């Protein structure tokens, strides 16, 4: 599954176009490698996403083409969530 689609379906990022923009800015890594929106993700991959003031690290547990709001959180496990200093904006 494409990275941008996973981020949207899992509701880590609300819109696919926004997921693409974040990936194109180099703010997402898959298993330590900088990822593009078109990168493929698979079960077990570790994503690190930088959102403005925080960095979230998640592990992909399940891939689904679509999900309900209640099911979306079951697609990944949050491994780490940390605040980032504001000087890199």
UniProtKB/TrEMBL annotation:
The UniProt record lists the keyword Oxidoreductase: no
Q: Which UniProt keywords apply?
A: Protein biosynthesis, RNA-binding, rRNA-binding, tRNA-binding
Q: According to its UniProt record, which protein family does this protein belong to?
A: Belongs to the RqcP family.
Instruction: State whether keyword Hydrolase applies.
Output: no
The terms under GO molecular function for this entry are: ribosomal large subunit binding; rRNA binding; tRNA binding
- Subunit details: Associates with stalled 50S ribosomal subunits. Binds to RqcH, 23S rRNA and the P-site tRNA. Does not require RqcH for association with 50S subunits.
Know the name of this protein? RQC P-site tRNA stabilizing factor
């Amino acid at each position: 599954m494409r990275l941008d689609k996973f981020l949207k379906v899992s509701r880590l990022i609300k819109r696919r176009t926004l997921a693409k923009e974040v990936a194109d800015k180099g703010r997402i890594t898959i298993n330590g490698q900088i990822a593009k929106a078109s990168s493929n993700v698979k079960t077990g991959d570790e994503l690190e996403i930088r959102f403005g003031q925080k960095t979230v690290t998640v592990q992909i547990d399940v891939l689904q083409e679509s999900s309900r709001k209640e099911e979306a959180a079951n697609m990944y496990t949050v491994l780490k969530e940390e605040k980032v200093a504001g000087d890199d904006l």
